[in-house]
Amino acid sequence: MRSRFIPAVALAVVGAVAIDCGGISDPSQNVTEPPFTGTIPVKGSGPLHQFSVSSTGEYTVKLNTLTPVTGTQIGINLYTGDATCTSGSLQLFGSNSALPNVQALGGRIFSGHYCLVAYDLGFLTVATTYSITVSHP
Questions:
Q1: How many CB atoms lie within 10 A of CB 123?
Q2: Which of 132, 119, 131, 124 is nearest to 69 (CA)?
Q3: Are 96 and 104 within 8 A, CB to CB?
Q4: Distance of CA 127 to CAs 5, 41, 81, 121, Å?
Q5: Bridge partners of 69?
Q6: What are the DSSP calls for the chain, one per residue?
Q7: Does this model's pTM top 0.85?
Q8: CA–CA distance from 14 to each of 8, 22, 81, 122 (Å)?
Q9: Residue ranges of the domains in the chain?
Q10: Which is the CATH superfamily of the domain at 24-136?
Q11: Which pLDDT tens digits describe the chain residue by residue (137 residues)?
Q12: Around Cβ 95, how many Cβ atoms within 10 Å?
């Protein structure tokens, strides 16, 4: 009986090591994109910002600044798509309202191409510039 147990344990260890090599990336190893910046016109949206994720892991999206409006919310959408963010290829991945200095989106993300857009939720009274940081594997 003991001789059957040892190969089973060895197989389990090999399987665990194989899963670990292709598993989820450690968030402490994430890269942070240079801040995405743009201007949101009243009742409009800013430009599409594209980035690529190399492996599965956790991501965060944080609105850093709004200028000149500082105490209002904007919307942030995150889409999956192709490398050029062609509108026909976009599929919504995450959406939320955002305040400055607060994480707007986060969770599990998969390897692929992503596109982010910031937009007016109806609260802006003047065109507003923003800075958004994205951290991902």
A1: 14
A2: 124
A3: yes
A4: 69, 4, 27, 13
A5: none
A6: -HHHHHHHHHHHHHHHHHHHHTSPPPGGG-EEPPPEEEEE-TT-B---EEEEE-SSEEEEEEEEEEES--S--EEEEEEEE-TT--GGG-EEEEEEEE-TTEEEEEEEE-SEEEEEEEEE-S--SS-EEEEEEEEE-
A7: no
A8: 10, 13, 35, 55
A9: 24-136
A10: Mitogen Ypm (2.60.120.510)
A11: 555 545 444 444 444 433 444 566 677 789 999 999 999 999 999 999 999 999 999 999 999 999 998 789 999 999 999 988 887 889 999 999 999 999 999 999 999 999 999 999 999 999 999 999 999 99
A12: 14
Which amino acid, residue 118? A
Other CB atoms closer than 10 Å to residue 50's CB: what's the count?
A: 17
Residue the block writes with tokens 């951290």: 135
- Residue whose token pair is 């105490």: 71
